[in-house]
Design goal:
With about 475 residues, the chain is α/β, with parallel strands linked by helices. About 55% of the residues lie in helices and about 10% in strands. The protein is built from 19 helices and 8 strands. Strands 2-3-4-1-5 form a 5-stranded parallel sheet.
């Protein structure tokens, strides 16, 4: 009799009360479940978006226990959604990464530096402030820091499934397009670069994304200070290339500075052979390597010229020496003295030879390079010049910009001599910073005024080299 009474009380009284109480709690629990699930999607922007969407869906579900069932279903589906969102973010970042592709065979040697950076960036650790891995490639201009960083990004691709974000000085000047790709609304993006950098670090915190700051300390960053990079706020993996490490807080235990060493003579030989000079003998390879200081950028430029013109080594060295003497004979004041990390005296003459040839045989190509040297370093596309007769362009360049075939031929001429990075798909051209310096030094005041006026009318940021 007692057992029957207990069974009656449990089924007729306690169970309905429990179900009723649980039913009252079910909607509250469902909301907590979807919020918890949204926070694990890997992005604050995605979390806010899906929290609002899922809570709206719950409000439309009739009943109380049904809401809980829907919330549990969302939680079960979340891992697939998280993977899809990660893939989507990675594709968006890849479209923006613009990782410089090293010239075929241009990356030789540097195994120790590559291994040190890769090992450091793959290392996982935890701290109260979150995972922070900042690696720094330091070395003089033209020594191959950007090429080495590109090799690191390629080798680490599998370790960063959410993508690689490559930011040059020009791209860091306005991070609005990057922040938009990360999911921020344009109205929420501040104008200040310092605030934009803080926002970037906040929205990459804890994510498996590699941010590469190429050329830190150049242009406006060099002239106005590097505090705007706010590296100590970073909570993701960061790779920095720089010529000058004075801005680095090297005492931070999470930072690793890897000096990019000078190439050995054997590596210089390998680089020249990879650039199409395999037929040269040991003595010629040694002469070119020694005269160009085993500097990768100068070696690539010299090889491109000798290969294109089929010029013997002796003739090239003669022209190089003439250009070198002309460059060094220019008067220098304390204000224009070169810092220790500037390699313009080596790479400058290699460019001078090619620029002199363009002046004689392809003045339109030279004019395009001069125009690029007056911008802030961003790639310059044909569409920015075409179909605007009001732009004050030199006649030889104005006659070509509206003829796609002729413009493409001009780009091929520039690329043939390794004078710039050319993208034939969007017809853009991007100059190395040192080449911009060399081209700017060769221009007269009249020429510079003309091209600065053109840049102003295009609405493009002006030259960042001089501040």
């Amino acid at each position: 009799m007692t057992m029957a009474l207990l069974l009656f009380l449990a089924t007729a009284v306690a169970l309905p009360l429990l179900l009723n109480e649980f039913g009252e709690w079910a909607p509250w629990l469902a909301v907590r479940i979807v919020r918890w699930t949204a926070r694990r999607l890997g992005s604050r922007t995605d979390a806010d978006r899906y929290t609002e969407e899922w809570e709206g869906n719950l409000n439309e579900v009739p009943g109380k226990l049904a809401k809980l069932a829907v919330a549990i279903g969302i939680m079960a589906y979340a891992p697939r959604l998280r993977g899809s969102l990660r893939w989507s973010r990675a594709r968006r970042l890849e479209s923006r990464a613009s990782i410089p592709s090293p010239l075929t065979g241009a990356f030789v040697g540097r195994e120790a530096e590559l291994e040190a950076i890769v090992k450091h960036l793959r290392r996982r650790f935890r701290s109260r402030r979150g995972a922070v891995r900042v690696s720094v490639l330091a070395g003089m201009g033209g020594i191959g820091k950007t090429t080495l960083a590109a090799a690191c990004a390629t080798k680490l691709a599998s370790s960063f499934p959410e993508g690689v974000l490559w930011l040059s000085p020009a791209e860091r000047a306005d991070l609005a397009p990057v922040l938009t790709l990360l999911g921020l609304a344009k109205v929420d993006i501040p104008q200040s670069q310092t605030e934009q950098m803080s926002l970037l670090w906040r929205h990459t915190a804890g994510r498996r994304v590699l941010v590469i700051l190429d050329g830190a300390g150049e242009g406006r960053e060099e002239n106005q200070g590097l505090g705007r990079l706010r590296l100590m706020e970073a909570r993701c993996s960061v790779l920095v290339t720089t010529r000058d490490t004075r801005f680095l807080q090297a005492d931070s235990r999470w930072w690793k500075v890897v000096p990019v060493r000078q190439m050995t003579r054997r590596e210089s030989f390998e680089l020249l052979r990879a650039q199409g000079l395999a037929e040269l003998g040991h003595s010629d390879l040694n002469l070119v390597s020694a005269r160009l200081g085993d500097l990768p950028l100068a070696l690539v430029l010299g090889a491109a010229w000798m290969r294109a013109c089929k010029m013997p080594v002796s003739e090239y060295i003669k022209r190089f020496d003439q250009a070198y003497e002309a460059l060094e004979s220019q008067p220098r004041t304390p204000d224009t003295a070169r810092p220790a990390w500037d390699t313009t005296p080596i790479v400058g003459p290699t460019w001078e030879i090619s620029l002199a040839s363009l002046k004689k045989h392809d003045p339109a190509a030279l004019a395009l390079l001069q125009l690029c040297s007056c911008t802030d370093g961003s790639p310059l596309q044909r569409r920015q010049l075409a179909y605007d007769d009001a732009l004050p362009l030199p006649p030889e360049l104005k006659a070509i910009v509206n003829v796609p075939a002729a413009y493409q031929q001009m780009l091929r001429s520039i690329a043939h001599h390794s004078l710039a990075e050319v993208n034939y798909a969007d017809e853009s051209i991007h100059l190395h910073r040192l080449l911009r310096l060399v081209v700017a030094d060769r221009m007269s005041k009249t020429e510079r005024s003309l091209f600065e006026e053109t840049v102003f009318r295009m609405g493009t940021s002006g030259d960042a080299l001089g501040g």
